[in-house]
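Example 295.
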Amino acid sequence: MKLTRRQIIITAAIITVLALLGGIMALIGRNTPVLFNGQRAFRDVNYQVSLGPRIPGNTAHAQTIEYIYQTLIKYGWELEIQEIEVMGHPIKNIIARRGSGDEWIILGAHYDTRRFADRDPNPQLQYDPVPGANDGASGVAVLLELGRVLPKDLDKEIWLVFFDAEDQGEIPTWDWILGSKGFAASLTDLPAAVVIVDMVGDADLQIYREKNSNSDLTDDIWKTARKSGFGKYFIDEEKYSILDDHIPFIRLGIPSVDIIDFDYPYWHTTADTADKTSADSLSAVGITLYNWLTR
Ligand SMILES: [Zn+2]
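Predicted structure in complex with zinc ion:
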């Protein structure tokens, strides 16, 4: 086949355009981060609730450990189940580690749910367990989705820690925050910051500054939320003082913050179900933390 001059010019032009397009596509591919998907996180809330209440020692609790473990292994994290004993109870904290660098940050959430719905308005339901869609599953779902989307090459060491037995206080032989207490006591080195997410899925999301939290770290995260377009959810006012998984780290002098929406009418009731939570709320918290970590 002999090409005419005109055919050669056209062929060369087509090849040039294709090469340019390929280059552009490659650039877009490299620079587009995997986005935090609130719907995907919401599915993880539903999945956990579908297992049933995750009470320390029960089957759903064991299935949740397995789910968190397998999910994060798949995303390329290094997993460890920390088995300790606190107040005579076996405690299993799940630790996922990735990355290296000068900065070491721990993100934490509790995965257990409360054995008794002692705040339920119906006294007959107060010995039933809490389904824990917001109080338990939401924090886990945000961490799992961050585990999926966080860049592998962050210049930081990140630990995602899923605490056991946060929510069994005021029950004979138990107390609040047993998992995080045991975990904090096991630290031989101190991270730069600890960020706890708890009850972050409320469809009517209102996160006030928590009074025991480190105020500089709170400023930093609330500022990131505003810049990310979520200022209406992260309200720049203090409202509650909460005993949560950040407390053992505050006691060690580590800058720590509790991101919690405590204006949740279904707290410790049998009505803490997935329909009270939303993908948008999970996104607001997840994207804020993503932006804060990758800033
Ligand atoms: Zn609770």
